[in-house]
Amino acid sequence: MLDRLGPAAWAKVERETNTGPADLISLCVYDDSKTIALISASATHLGLPVEEALRVFGRYWVRFAELSSFGPIMDFTGQDLVTFINNLDRMHRSVVLAMPDARVPSFTLMEETRKRLLVRYRSDRTGLETFVIGLLEGLMDRLNETGSVEVAGRAGNTIDFAIHLDRD
Ligand code: HEM
């Protein structure tokens, strides 16, 4: 968010949500109400609807993760989309071994053709649909793919995302 808001606006968001740098440096598990408060305050300052701010946040999160101490984990998880998505659950499981309170989602690659991937997302949280779209877009940026992501179906706590790749 800092990248997009600039330092002054970010300082305001921090004051409004009672967040200090220490909360963010630890990055990992802060409770959802704080995350939502941060995103809503940032959305207001950016003049974006919350759903859109979540998407921007997801996309930037991938950049942030690769520049942080998580960089090597990202490299290890995969250098192409199919490998990355297939390894994502294992990666999350290993990351959360050290964080007993973390609740991680599950991703399954359901269909794969050259130009389209169908990815099933399961979570015990709701409301993160556009965040996941942003994360998938961020992964595409990282892995040198272009294209688009859309919701292909929803059922209960499961959302299917279709990734359309700009390939010949
Ligand atoms: C090195 C990279 C990554 C690390 C270390 C990581 C770690 C984590 C951790 C610890 C949580 C749980 C947070 C909590 O319970 O408070 C989480 C949640 C989540 N992760 Fe990751 N993650 C990484 C990459 C990714 C990527 C690339 C994606 C998507 C394509 C992803 C999708 C998600 C989603 C959607 C959640 C929210 C929880 C939910 O939907 O229930 N993560 N991740």
Describe this structure in words.
This protein is of the alpha+beta class and 168 residues long. The protein has a domain at 73-165: H-NOX domain (Alpha-Beta Complex). The chain is built from 8 helices and 4 strands. It has a 4-stranded antiparallel β-sheet. A hairpin with a 2-residue loop joins strand 3 (147-155) and strand 4 (158-165). Helix 2 (7-17) crosses helix 4 (32-46), helix 4 (32-46) packs across helix 5 and helix 5 packs parallel to helix 8 (129-142). The protein is globular, with a radius of gyration of 16 Å. The model is unreliable at 21-29 (pLDDT under 50). Protoporphyrin IX containing FE binds next to helix 5, helix 6, helix 7 and helix 8.
What is the element layout, followed by pairings?
Elements (H helix, E strand, L loop, with lengths): L1 H4 L1 H11 L3 H5 L6 H15 L3 H18 L3 H7 L3 H16 L9 E7 L3 E7 L6 H14 L4 E9 L2 E8 L3
Antiparallel strand pairs: 1-2, 2-4, 3-4
Bound molecules: protoporphyrin IX containing FE.
- Count of distinct strands: 4
Largest sheet: 4 strands, antiparallel
Category by helix and strand content:
alpha+beta
The unique ligands bound to this protein are:
protoporphyrin IX containing FE
Q: Average pLDDT value?
A: 85
Lateral strand order in the biggest sheet: 1-2-4-3
List low-confidence stretches: 21-29
CATH architecture call of the domain at 73-165: Alpha-Beta Complex
Radius of gyration, taken over Cα atoms and rounded to an integer in Å: 16 Å
CATH superfamily of the domain at 73-165: H-NOX domain
Helical stretch tally: 8
Secondary-structure element series = HHHHHHHEEHEE
CATH classification, class level of the domain at 73-165: Alpha Beta
Provide the β-strand percentage band.
15-25%
Give the CATH topology of the domain at 73-165: H-NOX domain
* Intertermini distance: 34 Å
Q: Characterize the overall form.
A: globular
Approximate helicity band: 40-55%
